[in-house]
C-alpha cells in the first residue's frame, strides 16, 4: 500500500517531464488571464484575494499590472466602477468564489444601472461538484449576476480564456457600457497545459477561436460610429425651427469625450443647456450658457435636446417634456416615452461634429427669438446662484448654530463650493455618498471637467463613496493628476465602508473624506413622520429605557468619532462643530491630502434637517399608513398638500389648506410635539 506523503510525492514526481522546482505547472491558466488583460492595456485591478483565485491574481501581478487589495470586495468593485468612469476604460476587479462574489453583488448592480464597463473576475468551485453540496463555497456567479450584467460567462477550459476575455472586454466597452463577469473555477485554473492539450489541442490549439491583437493598434478603442445623415438633417432642422430649445447633457457625452464639439454646437446654434450625472463638466459649468438644473420657466421650453442622457426617474420623465430631439449612442437609449421629433443614433462626439458641419454647409442661423431666450436663461442662472448663496449664508450666523455644537448643511454646501473654487479652480472630483448632504450640496457644486461628480446613479445606494474615491485617485494618478479627491460621505455610508480608507492611507492617495454626521439613518425623518422620540414605532424601538434600565437611542446610533478611527487607520482626522471653524478645518484636511495623507473631517450636523424628498409626494405615499392623529406637524402639512383631494384620505380636504415645510428651516417647538387632534 502506497503511503501518502513524501514517498508518494516522489513517486508521482518521476512521471513529470519538468524537474521539481522548475515550474511544475507552466504555462498556467492564470497567465492567460494576465496576458489577455495586458493585451487590452489594463494597468490596475482592484479586489480581495482568496484560495480559488490566487492563481490568476499572481499572474496579473507578475505581468506588471498593479493589484490593489481591499478589506471588502464591495469597495473594490466600487473603485473599479469609478476608475472606469474617469479613465474611460474597463475597470478590472476580482473576488473569490462564494462570499467574494456575494459581497460584490451590490456594486455590480450599481455598475449595471450606471452603465459602467466593470470587468469582474471571480473564482468558482469545481464543475465536478455542481449541485452536490459537498464542496466548499459552492456558488454560481453567472446565475447570481445574470440579470445585472451585460454578459456573465463560466470559463471551464483553459484554452478558452483568451477568446472569452477578448469578447468580454469588447462587450463591456460596447455602448451602452456595462459590467461583465468572468467566472474561472478551479477546474479551469488548476488544469495543467499538458492535460488540456491531450483533450483539446488537436481540435482548437492553445487558444480556441482567438488571435492576438485582433484589432491591431486599436485594441483599446471602443467601437463606435456617427449618425445617419438623414437623421442629422432632421435633427438640425428641428433645432433651428425651435424658438426656445434646451439641451441636457448626460453620461454618454462624458464617455464620448464630446465636450469641445458640444460646446461649439451650442454656441453656434445658441442652445442653453444643463448637465446630469457624469455629464456634469463635459462643458465647464462656468460657461454662461450652462444653467444649473432646469429653469423655473421650463414650461416655456419648446424643444428638448437630450444628449447621451439616460432619461429616468430623476430627469423629469417624458410626460412633462415638450417634443425632443434625442441623441444617443445606442438605440436602447432612445426612449419611447418621449415625444420625439428626431432621433440620432451615434456617438455624441461624432454626431455633434456632423450637426456642426451641416449647419455650416447650409449657412443656418438661429431664429430671431433665440437671443431673447438665451439671455433669459443666462439671467436665470445668475439669479439662481445669488439666491442660493443668500439662502445658505442666512444660516451661517443663525442663533441656533451659535448656541449649539452642530452645523447646517446649506452653509457647508456654499462654503465647500467656495473653497473648491478658490483653491482648486473647481477641478476637484467629488463623490456624493450622503443622503441629506446630496440634496443640499448638488446645486452648489461647479464642475469643469468630465466625470467630476460621481454618484450611485439610479441605484441610489449607500457606502459607494469610499471605494469610488480610491478608484478615481488611482485613475487621476495614472494621468499625472495629483488634484485631491473629495468624498462627501454621510455617517451611514462611512459606517458601511470606512475600514477601506486604510487602502487610501496605504497608497498615500490624496483624498479628503468629509463626513456629515447626524448620528443615524436620516434621523431628521422622525420630525416629519415619526415624532421626536420615534413615537410611531413600537415601544421596544422608540426612545426609552433599554433592558439595563438606561436610555436607548431608538433608531439613532451612538455618536461616532470617525476622525479618531481614521487616525488609527493611518489618516489625518479631526472633528468640527461650528461654522466659524469649518473652512480652516477643511483646509487642513486638503493640505494633509496633498502631502499624501488621506484625511477624514467629521462634521457634526443639525439632526433637524433632512433631504427635501422626505417631504415629497412619494414619501407622503410611503407613510400613508400612519394615522393623521399620530403625525408630527410637518408630516400633516406634507400629507395635506399632496393628498388633501384624494379619496384615500376622505375628510382631509376639510382641514384648512397648508403649505409644505421648508426642509432648510430648523423645527419650532410646536412642530416637534405630536398633537392628538
Structure description:
The chain is of the alpha/beta class. The chain folds into 4 domains: 21-218, Thiamin diphosphate (ThDP)-binding fold, Pyr/PP domains (Rossmann fold), CATH 3.40.50; 229-381, TPP-binding domain (Rossmann fold, 3-Layer(aba) Sandwich), CATH 3.40.50.1220; 394-521 and 557-604, 3-Layer(aba) Sandwich (Rossmann fold), CATH 3.40.50; 612-672, no CATH class. Helices cover 39% and strands 13% of the residues. It has 27 helices and 19 strands. The strands form 4 sheets. A 6-stranded parallel sheet has the order 2-1-3-4-6-5, with helices on both faces. A 6-stranded parallel sheet has the order 13-12-14-15-19-18, with helices on both faces. Helix 24 links the parallel strand 18 and strand 19 (599-604). Mean pLDDT is 90; it is low at 1-15.
> Biggest sheet: strands side by side, in what order?
2-1-3-4-6-5
Name the beta content range: 5-15%
Number of helices: 27
Could you estimate the helical fraction of the residues in percent? 25-40%
The number of distinct β-strands equals 19
CATH superfamily of the largest domain: Thiamin diphosphate (ThDP)-binding fold, Pyr/PP domains
Q: What is the mean pLDDT?
A: 90
What are the segments in which pLDDT stays under 50 over at least 5 consecutive residues?
1-15
Regarding quaternary structure, how should these chains be classified? single chain
Terminal-residue CA separation: 89 Å
- What's the CATH topology label of the largest domain? Rossmann fold
Largest sheet: 6 strands, parallel
Structural class call reads alpha/beta
Count of discrete structural domains: 4
CATH architectural type of the largest domain: 3-Layer(aba) Sandwich
C-alpha geometry: globular
Q: Provide the CATH top-level class of the largest domain.
A: Alpha Beta
Rg, Cα atoms, Å: 28 Å
Amino acid at each position: 500500500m502506497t503511503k501518502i506523503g513524501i514517498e508518494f510525492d516522489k513517486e508521482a514526481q518521476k512521471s513529470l517531464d519538468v524537474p521539481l522546482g522548475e515550474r511544475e505547472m507552466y504555462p498556467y491558466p492564470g497567465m492567460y488571464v494576465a496576458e489577455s488583460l495586458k493585451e487590452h492595456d489594463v494597468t490596475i485591478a482592484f479586489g480581495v484575494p482568496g484560495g480559488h483565485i490566487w492563481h490568476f491574481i499572481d499572474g496579473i501581478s507578475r505581468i506588471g499590472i498593479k493589484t490593489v487589495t481591499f478589506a471588502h470586495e464591495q469597495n473594490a468593485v466600487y473603485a473599479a466602477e469609478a476608475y472606469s468612469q474617469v479613465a474611460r476604460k474597463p475597470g478590472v476587479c476580482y473576488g473569490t468564489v462564494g462570499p467574494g462574489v456575494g459581497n460584490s453583488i451590490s456594486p455590480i448592480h450599481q455598475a449595471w444601472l450606471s452603465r459602467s464597463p466593470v470587468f469582474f473576475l471571480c473564482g468558482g468551485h469545481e464543475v465536478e461538484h455542481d449541485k452536490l453540496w459537498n464542496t466548499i463555497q459552492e456558488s454560481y456567479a453567472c446565475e447570481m449576476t445574470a440579470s445585472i450584467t451585460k454578459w456573465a460567462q463560466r470559463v471551464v477550459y483553459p484554452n478558452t480564456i483568451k477568446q472569452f476575455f477578448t469578447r468580454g472586454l469588447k462587450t463591456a466597452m460596447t455602448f451602452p457600457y456595462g459590467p461583465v463577469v468572468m467566472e474561472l473555477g478551479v477546474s479551469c485554473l488548476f488544469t495543467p497545459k499538458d492535460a488540456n492539450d491531450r483533450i483539446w489541442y488537436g481540435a482548437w490549439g492553445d487558444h480556441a477561436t482567438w488571435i492576438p491583437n485582433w484589432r491591431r493598434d486599436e485594441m483599446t478603442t471602443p467601437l463606435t460610429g456617427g449618425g445617419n445623415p438623414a437623421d442629422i438633417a432632421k435633427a438640425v432642422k428641428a433645432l433651428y425651427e425651435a424658438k426656445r430649445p434646451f439641451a441636457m447633457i448626460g453620461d454618454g457625452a462624458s464617455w464620448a469625450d464630446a465636450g469641445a464639439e458640444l460646446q461649439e454646437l451650442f454656441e453656434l446654434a445658441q442652445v442653453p443647456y444643463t448637465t446630469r450625472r457624469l455629464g456634469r463638466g463635459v462643458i465647464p459649468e462656468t460657461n454662461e450658457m450652462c444653467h444649473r438644473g432646469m429653469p423655473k420657466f421650463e414650461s416655456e421650453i419648446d424643444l428638448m435636446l437630450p444628449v447621451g442622457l439616460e432619461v429616468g426617474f430623476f430627469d423629469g420623465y417624458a410626460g412633462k417634456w415638450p417634443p425632443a430631439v434625442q441623441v444617443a449612442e445606442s438605440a436602447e437609449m432612445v426612449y419611447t416615452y418621449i415625444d420625439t421629433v428626431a432621433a440620432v443614433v451615434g456617438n455624441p462626439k461624432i454626431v455633434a461634429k456632423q450637426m456642426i458641419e451641416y449647419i455650416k454647409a447650409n449657412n443656418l442661423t438661429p431664429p430671431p427669438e433665440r437671443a431673447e431666450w438665451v439671455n433669459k436663461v443666462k439671467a436665470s442662472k445668475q439669479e439662481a446662484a445669488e439666491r442660493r448663496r443668500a439662502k445658505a449664508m442666512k444660516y451661517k450666523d443663525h442663533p441656533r448654530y451659535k448656541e449649539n455644537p452642530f452645523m447646517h448643511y446649506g452653509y457647508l454646501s456654499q462654503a465647500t463650493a467656495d473653497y473648491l473654487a478658490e483653491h482648486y479652480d473647481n477641478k476637484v472630483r467629488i463623490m456624493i455618498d450622503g443622503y441629506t448632504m446630496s440634496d443640499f450640496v448638488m446645486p452648489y457644486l461647479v464642475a469643469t471637467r468630465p466625470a467630476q461628480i460621481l454618484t450611485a446613479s439610479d441605484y441610489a445606494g449607500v457606502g459607494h463613496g469610499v471605494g469610488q474615491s480610491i478608484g478615481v485617485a488611482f485613475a487621476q494618478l495614472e494621468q499625472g493628476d495629483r488634484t485631491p479627491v473629495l468624498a462627501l460621505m454621510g455617517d451611514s455610508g462611512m459606517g458601511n465602508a470606512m475600514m477601506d480608507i486604510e487602502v487610501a492611507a496605504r497608497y498615500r492617495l490624496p483624498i479628503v473624506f468629509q463626513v456629515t454626521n447626524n448620528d443615524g439613518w436620516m434621523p431628521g425623518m422622525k420630525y416629519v413622520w415619526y415624532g421626536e422620540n420615534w413615537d410611531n414605532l413600537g415601544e421596544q424601538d422608540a426612545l426609552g429605557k433599554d433592558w439595563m434600565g438606561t436610555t436607548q437611542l431608538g433608531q439613532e446610533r451612538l455618536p461616532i468619532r470617525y476622525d479618531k478611527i481614521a487616525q488609527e487607520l493611518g489618516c489625518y482626522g479631526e472633528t468640527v462643530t461650528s461654522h466659524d471653524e469649518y473652512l480652516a478645518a477643511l483646509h487642513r484636511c486638503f493640505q494633509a491630502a496633498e502631502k499624501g495623507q488621506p484625511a477624514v473631517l467629521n462634521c457634526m450636523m443639525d439632526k433637524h434637517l433632512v433631504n427635501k424628498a422626505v417631504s415629497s409626494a412619494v414619501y407622503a405615499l410611503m407613510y400613508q399608513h400612519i394615522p393623521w392623529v399620530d403625525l408630527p406637524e410637518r408630516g400633516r402639512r406634507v400629507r395635506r398638500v399632496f393628498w388633501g383631494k384624494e379619496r384615500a384620505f376622505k375628510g382631509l380636504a376639510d382641514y384648512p389648506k397648508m403649505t409644505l415645510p421648508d426642509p432648510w428651516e430648523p423645527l419650532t417647538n410646536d412642530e416637534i410635539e405630536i398633537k392628538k387632534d
